[in-house]
Amino acid sequence: MCFNNYVISVTDKGKLKISEYKYILPDEKIAQYPLANRDDSKLLVYKDGNIEEKIFKNIVDYIPDDSLIIFNNTKVIPARLFFHKDTGAKIEIFCLEPYSGSMDYQVEFHKKEKSVWKCFIGNASKWKTGKVKNAFVHEGREIGITAEVKEKIADEYVIEFSWTPAEITFGELIEYSGKIPLPPYIRRETEESDKNKYQTVYAKVDSSVAAPTAGLHFTETVFEKLKVKNCRTDYLTLNVGAGTFKPVKAEFAGGHKMHNELFCVSKSLIENILRYRNKKIIAVGTTTLRTLESLYWYGVKLLKREGGNFFIEQWYPYENENAETEESLKAVLNFMKKNNLEVIYGNTELMIVPGYRFSIADIIITNFHLPGSTLLLLIAAFIGEDWKKVYGYALNNNFRFLSYGDSSILFKKD
Hints:
With 414 residues, the protein is an alpha/beta fold. The protein has two domains: 3-75 and 198-411, QueA-like (3-Layer(aba) Sandwich), CATH 3.40.1780; 79-178, no CATH class. It is built from eleven helices and 20 strands. It has a ten-stranded mixed β-sheet with strand order 3-2-20-19-15-4-13-14-18-16, covered by helices on one side. A six-stranded antiparallel β-sheet has the order 6-7-8-11-10-9. Strand 6 and strand 7 form a beta hairpin. Helix 6 packs antiparallel against helix 9 (325-338) and helix 7 crosses helix 9 (325-338). The chain starts with a strand and ends with a strand.
């Protein structure tokens, strides 16, 4: 087993000043609506220190032939539910994740009569005790739903939902009555069009409360062009949580508590990554890239005989030696084969900051991120100090920022 030390130290990440990764983002630069056509968005191409401005529908011109492109196929659930107290007070409940901790959200979505979730509550000061209710009509049938607080954990609440008719599943219930949760910087109410627009065309697994927005630009036309270039596409699932919008309030990176997210990776994806080790591997979005790195570190844990529970702590890479990528991924494959697993579930708190060296992806496709955010820190780790040049160009050339904004393709800086 060959270990290499190339990740920054615990001391270094503790001294990393967040203020050095901030920039001024005027409100008018934040896209409030998507473009009519997904692939009409602008595309910033960064490679070898150079920048070009293109249109996303032509991204295939910059993707190497015979590449492996990896997507996060999570689907955004209509997680915002609205209720009224007898007093008339309006209560919003934002479903975050099943209270059971199940990594398979489909189990919870198929439950009937009752379901328990961790949630945020809007207007919580108006709801101290008791139950809140709502009723609506779907296809001529009246459906009643009740919510009750069971417990409070930090700034989250454990909510038990119950409904009639009992034969309706929880998944159907929120599909009929819930609203898509747009990010807080989109300062408008959710509209009917957001159900489709705030969803990738390849979204498959109901599991997220925010979209993997780097993928919003892809269309069937773009996928067809990728086939012509003999590019292979594959998928993983990371459940994007509300924590992705959590601001970094600490002065130094070491003082920030990273959010925990669930993910799922298939054996076939790991095999494909190994096949493409001598070609180019492209991660679509920061969620995909973070999952791939978490997968790599689980392999390191297995090599060090620290495996078992698949959980990557926030600072694990900065406190441990790392292994060769191929050796690490083969360790995960062997573990899956030994345990007869076709997919593997895990949790990650991994925080990627400048100085981190990536193990799998050569290229990332991503949108433009908030100043001082963990997502921007990841981008700065991927392309180095040139992140300032990239963001400066985008700001000065009318690129649209954040979830409904424009795109970039960034080639890793070694």
